[in-house]
Specification:
The chain has 345 residues and is α/β, with parallel strands linked by helices. The protein is built from 12 helices and 18 strands. The chain has 2 domains: 199 residues, Medium-chain alcohol dehydrogenases, catalytic domain (Quinone Oxidoreductase, Chain A, domain 1, Alpha-Beta Complex); 135 residues, Rossmann fold, CATH 3.40.50.720. Strands 3, 5, 6, 9, 10, 17 and 18 form a 7-stranded mixed beta sheet that branches. The protein has a 6-stranded parallel beta sheet with strand order 13-12-11-14-15-16, with helices on both faces. Strands 2-1-4 form a 3-stranded antiparallel beta sheet. It binds zinc ion (2 copies).
Length: 345
Amino acid sequence: MRATLMYGAGDVRVENVPDSVIKQPTDALVRVTSSCICGSDLHPYHSMSRDSGPARMGHEFIGIVEGTGSEVSTVRKGDLVVAPFAISCGTCVFCREGLYTSCLHGGFWDNEPLEGGQAEAVRVPFADGTLVKLNVAEDSALMPSLLTLSDVFGTGYHAAVQGGVNERTSVSVIGDGAVGLLAVLSAKRLGAEQIILMGRHQARTDLGREFGATDVVAERGEEGITKVRELTGGHGTHVVLEAVGHMPAYEQAFGIVRPGGTISRVGVPQYEDAPIGFGSLFGGNITLTGGPAPVRAYIEELMPDILNGTIEPGKVFDTTTDLDGVPEGYQAMDERKSLKVLIRP
Ligand SMILES: [Zn+2]
Ligand SMILES: [Zn+2]
């Protein structure tokens, strides 16, 4: 079968690899029908060393179950399923609390070196705890939106939930990538009236407005902070959803958060050390939260609004390709020519 491998920074190839097969009684084998490239795939695309490659890529996919191990009971051959970006057993203490990304038995797809979603097929461990059945046809026009449940929509929603967004909170969103835009949609869904989107790519911020942003601030750094403060009576917003992961975005976040407010991060931090002292978090009684989104916890909650057409998170996909076009897709996303690339293997 064919699959995407990253050999090092900037070097993505699609090659033949051994077929994925069922190995454990709790596995399912899924033939991938839709997959995509994630903004977080761009981090290794920038920095991966050749010694650690090649790595199988992809952690967001929808597909058809081709077979199941003897202990799998919730999905069966022929089912269309969506896979979250983390594998979870569904039964351990953290899964029962809804914190699927801290599952004691699962993990991220990176820990499955022979599997990846940007491929023709995937062996899915803990199929009962990980996969969610989709009751739609394989060729449904809803597929791009349903695919966002595997990561970007659930991640944007997690940011908003962790940040405590509700109808009484004003919200800033830092980042106009897919997660940032879907954080806007999520903040709107949770009732926020003022939603300030910080981003400077106009096609994206236009989509952000469609998703519910009331204001767009294109400026960055001190200028951006000043703009947000102007829009909020000088105080900043109750909640800041940070969907980038680089240090300037974090600095922007504590620059625009209102005293007593919350910064919720879902952009994977590309730093370990960051200010938390009087001038950043402590002085304003700021809460810092966020982390990898346990998207499995949100799929059933978010799916009905996609199925009934209330929301269309799949609008974040602006490019579709087959497996051959995946290396180009990485390049297009890296150069910000494409917002998010949908793959139909
Ligand atoms: Zn992702
Ligand atoms: Zn678990």
